[in-house]
Design brief:
- By secondary structure, the chain is mainly α.
- It contains 3 helices and no strands.
- The protein has one domain.
- It starts with a helix and ends in a 6-residue tail after the last helix.
- The relative contact order is 0.09.
- The model has no long low-confidence stretch (mean pLDDT about 85).
Length: about 70
């Protein structure tokens, strides 16, 4: 059970890091610093949408690497 909790916390930390990275790129990190209370629904949606795009890109890249094999060949 402790392993599951650690894995869950790690995922949460990674998602928070991604959220801050996206918010910074969109110049919304100052609003996020205030606890998100200053964010509009549109701004929060932009952050979430860009997070999803980045996660999809990472997933596609992982699949490409998996398909090419460990030595980089198909």
């Amino acid at each position: 059970m402790a392993k599951r909790k650690r894995a869950e916390n790690k995922r949460k930390t990674e998602m928070d890091k991604l959220k801050w990275e996206v918010a910074d790129a969109l110049n919304l990190d100052d609003d996020l610093t205030k606890g998100g209370d200053e964010l509009t629904v549109r701004e929060a949606g932009k952050i979430g949408g860009n997070m999803v795009k980045k996660l999809v890109e990472k997933g596609k890249e992982a699949m490409r690497q998996e398909d090419s094999g460990p030595d980089g060949s198909s």
